[in-house]
Amino acid sequence: METISLKIHPQILDLYEVLEQNGLHRQKEEVQSLVGYIENMEYNLSVIMNEIQEMHTQVNRLNDRSLRAQCGKIVSKAEEKIRQAKTMFSVAKVKTIQSAGNAVKAFRDKGRDALMQAVTAMRIPAALEHLKSGMHRSAEAM
Hints:
The chain is an all-alpha fold. The chain contains 5 helices and no strands. It has helices spanning 10-21, 25-60, 65-110, 112-121, 124-141. Helix 2 (25-60) runs antiparallel to helix 3 and helix 3 (65-110) runs antiparallel to helix 4 (112-121).
């Protein structure tokens, strides 16, 4: 299942345009920062997951059964943590798209003040911090 890049998602692009038109450059930069972070981490996690799959292949080639079992457990635990991180970023991506759509709708319905409230409600700095701390916890658990 191929999903559209967050950077070119229509709702995100609409939000960028509305923010730019209303002179909300700092808010646009915050949204771009969140989008960039999510996109970057999704890419990195996909690369890591491919490497994990290769590690499974290599572990299965080990002749020593006890070593194969131990290594298999380690690789499987790492794979589970990567899957959890991917899920966290998938949820963040969906929420970002929904929030962008809500912000643009609020602007069209109620004006600039509603746009600012909607963007503030996205809590972008807090969302970034939450994602970063989630990744840190996952890395420590591995």
